[in-house]
Design brief:
The chain contains 4 helices and no strands. It is elongated, with a radius of gyration of 17 Å. The chain has helices at about 10-20, 30-40, 45-50, 60-75. With about 80 residues, the chain is mainly α.
Length: about 80
């Protein structure tokens, strides 16, 4: 599946260098490795909870949608980027 992920210029340079060192044309495989490692560290109950949330918002509840979007944006501001 294709998706867009925002990364810094520095991350892009490092990923490209590692991919080139491994003989890869791009760095999708590196991103997949990183995601697999991250997901492996999640606890099964945490994954189950996250998957159970799919489709739980009422499409017609704008206040709820705005609140969720606001909380997501606030959380994104605290993400660590190494």
């Amino acid at each position: 599946m294709r998706t867009t992920v925002e990364i810094t210029d520095a991350q892009h340079r490092v990923l490209s260098a590692v991919a080139q060192q491994r003989g890869l044309r791009g760095f999708s495989a590196l991103v997949q490795e990183a995601l697999d490692a991250y997901l492996q560290d999640l606890h099964a109950d945490e994954i189950e909870l996250l998957l159970s949330l799919e489709g739980t918002l009422d499409e017609h509840e704008e206040d709820e949608e705005d609140e969720v979007r606001s909380r997501i944006e606030a959380t994104r501001q605290t993400w660590r980027v190494s």
